[in-house]
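Workshop exercise sheet. Pairs work together: one partner reads the sequence aloud, the other fills in the structure field after running the prediction. Swap roles for the next sheet.
Pair: D.N. / O.F.
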Amino acid sequence: MPSYSRHDLADLSAFAAICRRGSFRLAAIELGVSTSALSHALRNLEDRLGVKLLNRTTRSVAPTEAGSRLAAQLDQSFGEIGAALSELDRYRSGPLGGLRINVPRDASRLLLSPVLARYLDDYPGVKIEVVVDNNMVDIVKAGFDAGIRFGDTVPQDMVCTPLTPPLRWVVVGAPAYLGRHGTPRTPEDLLRHACIRLRLGDQTMYRWELGQPPRAHAIDVPGALIVNETDMALDAALDGIGLAYCLERCAEPHLRAGRLRRVLDEWSPAGAPLVMYYPSRRQLAPALSRLIEAIRGANGLPGAIDG
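Structure field:
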């Protein structure tokens, strides 16, 4: 396949305009250049191609046989390019196309599930793929448009938009467990309790974070059970296996029903919000910006986002 440069493309576009208009003067007006500049461009194009494309006199201009064949092919090709560019208007005018998002399990249940039905009903031109993964991934390398994580874990070269206010973390236990083992009063008391330990996506063991500076504690709690997601930790707490540490919003239904109780409530910290993160603020896809707005609105934040 012969190589060509951006100069070739510009000169080919100029050649097509001359053939379409049948005049250097009219083509120059269409392209916003001088007649002499247009004539110079055509001479350079013919020199580079080694083929005469136009027969011209002081009164008329007409393509040669080679020029006529090239002009016909260019009309078709430039027409296809124009149609492809016009197709982009559909993406600019509203949410459309595919959206691929990587989210941890808690975010999928707390943030996405409550809004997806309404969102897909409002924007039928959007298709969403949600990959639930508690591991931190390189969303660009893995082919995702965006991800959701806690704001203090996102790489600094990413753009972040908060989806929630700061989130509260709590220690919870079943009434039966607390009746047998007593209620911890200080963070240090946890060292004498059965705790449901949590392994993070990077395979490290999570240290329970309690309190706020300057009284903050990070405790490597004891316990016979290790899990890597919140639902199983809550199920274990409900079964009386031990105390669990989780987002208050995840435990809320059980707390309201009395199946679980908060302990060390005064030590419950407010942590980073969940955020949507993506590589660039420039030309954010409408499908993603509308999803962000829907989630923010459902979580008590102003729907509109900057950029």
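Discussion prompt: The mean pLDDT is 88. What would you look at next?
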